[in-house]
Amino acid sequence: MINLYLESISESNIKWSSIILRTSSLVMSDEIYNSLETKERLLTFYYYHFDILPEHKAFIKEQLLTPSNAATLCFRIKKYRKTFHKIVDSIIEQAIQENSLKPIPLID
């Protein structure tokens, strides 16, 4: 499920994608992940993701503080954000398909 969305990450964002890949591998190696309810699956993904971010502190700091990176950082972060959201959306969609979560209608 998660790996389907990782294919869309471009080569120019290898380091950013490695953060997502690391999160994915941690989540998939969790023995009880598939038996969790949707809320717990999302929390597990978030927990693992934010738990590994400090491992990449130097990289993230460099991306934020280096002027040459500033011009393209917003585009890289946007791709990273989209990938992150696609993974979260896939977890929610899987729960809807399993009938463990019902979609909430939006109010216009």
What does this structure look like?
The protein has 108 residues and is mainly α. The chain has one domain (2-97). 70% of the residues lie in helices and 0% in strands. The chain has helices spanning 2-6, 14-29, 38-52, 57-65, 67-97. α2 crosses α3 and α3 (38-52) runs antiparallel to α5 (67-97). The longest helix is centred in the last third of the chain and has 31 residues, at 67-97. It is flat and about 50 Å long. The two termini are 31 Å apart. Residues 8-12 have low confidence and may be disordered.
- Rg over C-alpha atoms, rounded to the nearest angstrom: 16 Å
What fraction strand? Answer: under 5%
Structural class: mainly alpha
Tell me the quaternary state: single chain
Give the count of helical stretches: 5
- For the termini, the CA-CA separation is 31 Å
pLDDT averaged over residues: 78
Number of extended strands: 0
Largest sheet: none
Give the SSE string: HHHHH
* Unreliably modeled segments: 8-12
Note the topology.
Elements: H1 2-6, H2 14-29, H3 38-52, H4 57-65, H5 67-97
Helix pairs in contact: 2-3, 3-5, 4-5
In short:
This protein is an all-alpha fold.
Provide key terms for this protein.
mainly alpha; flat; 5 helices; 108 residues
